[in-house]
Design a protein that fits this description.
The protein has 592 residues and is of the alpha+beta class. Helix content is 31%, strand content 24%. Strands 5-4-3-6-2-1-7-8 form an eight-stranded mixed sheet, with helices on one face. Strands 9-10-15-12-13 form a five-stranded mixed sheet, with helices on both faces. It has a four-stranded antiparallel sheet with strand order 22-23-24-28. A hairpin with a 4-residue loop joins strand 26 and strand 27. Helix 1 crosses helix 3, helix 2 packs parallel to helix 5 and helix 11 packs across helix 15. The protein is elongated and about 95 Å long. About 11% of the residues have low confidence.
Length: 592
């Protein structure tokens, strides 16, 4: 096939495939234009998650009649004039592709009145057709209406999710702008219903209110203010104390010169600052603003302008990591144990406290057996989960590969002996795996069991969390939870699985919602349920310096021996290790 030139419409649709992937991407590009135009208030209205209609209106300086036709032409922009300008980009937009791409795959109307004009003008185009220019009544700024997104590219239209999902992306995008530009007012409504109306946060109190509205009160309580400056860059914002972590990266916001960006370099710098104070695989939360000389960064890296390069990446890395580490160094470590509530365990009377503290073996025939499994009863039972005590089974050597407990180390690790030597067990990790495997079995047998709470538990959600819950109610129903969302973004929890105690529910539900928000597009419902069961097991397992009797330790060891994958916890960490007696002999030079 001979080489030929593509027509402009095809070229624009190809460009749209790079820049415009969903309604939220359209809103991102339009809001960036509004901010570059000096707008102080931005109003967004959507229908069907933005698939059928979306409107972005601002009070910026507006567009003149002469410039309106140029707005939908590729590579037509007011942000730069020559190649050298790319070396010092000071605006959010500069490529001159966004409006042309949007117009190529939708029906667009642009109404605008320039500050120096007597009246406004309107431009209309359908799928990149020849534009029509008419006078219009608009008092100030610009109003852009985008209808029937991807109406002329059905293949791309089929990749769109349901309206609720697309609206969720829209909300997240606008919330990001609202965090990054606190001095700007943002208004969002869908189908005439106001979702939020944020006034310009021009004072510290108003900024705190905006943080609470978008990230919740818990974030603000845990937030530490950061402000530092070097020769060519400065950083300010909020970082959360190590005790406040998230299951996902849903509260990590980084802005460079007002632009929300993703950067492996910056993410690694922050992880490095938290590496010796954060727990496990959980993620810190932060809202940070880096200001740097535009000549020292390259924003012309990706069509969506979400990635940047630094000329002195190492210097930025060290500056950011050191400043965050310095703030965290003054934070007194706080136990996170209150977020992980252990089940109630019945004490076995045959082991006295004195015997428990001593690291000597008790005759094995006296051990009772504690069942570390979940007692599942009929729905509506309002009792606490209890790990029951059973009669000791007949001792058989074949069933004791993990040996017998002889004591504990700081009440965190079980010390046991077997024929090979010493066994060290991570109590929380082992109990977590046991509960997870049992929860999976009960779920597949459809007998998780529920308990009705005497008093419903109220959980205040952020807007993002509330939208995610509404979209995934079936997940919580499958887990045996009776939860309803009230109009003021408050969850009312009426019943829960028997495993959970009431003071473990808040953090567990938030972690499940965070996982649902950031799941992969290809994740199946079954996988989502299993991940949620893992979260439930983690929040319900023994945690902290829990004082177990020898009988309870041995019961846990017996459960481990009959549990699948008991060598690893749900997060891939080992639950126990074997130290051969020969190794211990070498420590003390025995046999030499």
């Amino acid at each position: 096939m001979p080489i030929h030139r593509l027509d402009n419409q095809t070229i624009n649709q190809i460009a749209a495939g790079e820049v415009i992937e969903r309604p939220a991407a359209v809103i991102k590009e339009l809001i960036e234009n509004s901010l570059d135009a000096g707008a102080m208030h931005i109003h967004v209205s959507v229908e069907q998650g933005g698939l059928s209609s979306l409107i972005v209106q601002d009070n910026g300086e507006g567009i003149s009649k002469e410039d309106l036709p140029l707005t939908i032409m590729r590579h037509a922009t007011s942000k730069i004039q020559r190649m050298e300008d790319l070396e010092s980009i000071a605006t959010l937009g500069f490529r001159g592709e966004a409006l042309a791409s949007i117009a190529a795959v939708s029906k667009v109307s642009i109404q605008s009145k320039h500050v120096d004009a007597e009246h406004g003008w309107q431009l209309k185009t359908d799928g990149g057709s020849e534009p029509i220019l008419l006078p219009t009544a608009i008092r100030e700024g610009t109003r852009i209406t985008v209808k029937q997104l991807f109406f002329n590219t059905p293949a791309r239209r089929r990749f769109m999710k349901k309206p609720a999902t697309e609206f969720n992306h829209v909300v997240r995008r606008i919330q990001t702008f609202a965090l990054g530009h606190s001095s700007i007012g943002f208004h969002l409504e869908q189908s005439g219903k106001v979702i939020f109306d944020l006034v310009p946060a021009t004072t510290d109190i108003l900024q705190e209110k905006r943080l609470i509205s978008l990230l919740g009160e818990d974030f603000l309580r845990a937030a530490r203010h950061l402000e530092a400056q070097a020769a060519s860059l400065s950083v300010r914002g909020w970082i959360a104390e190590p005790g406040y972590t998230r299951a996902e990266r849903d509260q990590q916001y980084f802005f460079v010169n007002g632009r929300h960006i993703t950067s492996q370099l910056l993410n690694h710098a922050i992880r490095q600052a938290y590496h010796d104070v954060a727990y496990g695989h959980r993620h810190p939360a932060f809202v940070l603003f880096l200001e740097i000389d535009p000549a020292l960064i390259d924003v012309n890296v990706h069509p969506t302008k979400s990635e940047i390069r630094f000329r002195d990446g190492r210097g930025v890395y060290e500056f950011l990591s050191q400043q965050i580490h310095a703030v965290l160094a003054h934070v007194k470590p706080v136990s996170d144990a209150h977020r992980f509530i252990s089940p109630k365990i019945m004490t076995v009377p045959d082991i006295t406290p004195t015997q428990h503290r001593m690291a000597f073996s008790t005759p094995r025939e006296t051990y009772s057996s504690v069942n570390f499994s979940v007692e599942v009863s009929s729905p509506g039972n309002n009792t606490e989960t209890v790990l029951t005590v059973e009669e000791p089974p007949v001792h058989t050597e074949q069933k004791t590969s993990l040996g017998y407990a002889i004591g504990s180390l700081h009440h965190l690790f079980i010390l046991a002996e077997n024929e090979q030597g010493l066994i060290v067990v991570d109590t929380h990790a082992a109990h977590e795996r046991i509960l997870y495997e049992q929860l999976k079995k009960h779920y597949h047998r459809q007998n998780l069991g529920t308990q009705t709470l005497l008093t419903p538990i109220e959980i205040k959600l952020t807007l993002q969390e509330a939208l995610c819950f509404e979209e995934n109610e079936v997940v919580f129903e499958s887990l045996g939870m009776d939860i309803r969302l009230s109009s003021d973004r408050c969850l009312l929890v009426r019943s829960t699985p028997l495993l959970l105690k009431s003071n473990a529910i808040d953090s567990m539900i938030r972690d499940i919602i965070a996982g649902l928000t950031h799941r992969e597009k290809t994740t199946t419902l079954e996988t989502i349920i299993q991940q949620a069961l893992g979260t439930m097991a983690c929040h319900s397992a023994i945690r902290g310096r829990h004082d177990l009797s020898l009988s309870e330790m041995n019961a846990l060891l017996r459960q481990m021996e009959t549990t699948e994958h008991s060598g690893l916890c749900n997060h891939g960490r080992p639950t126990w290790i074997q130290i051969p007696v020969e190794e211990v002999n070498r420590w003390f030079y025995r046999g030499r």
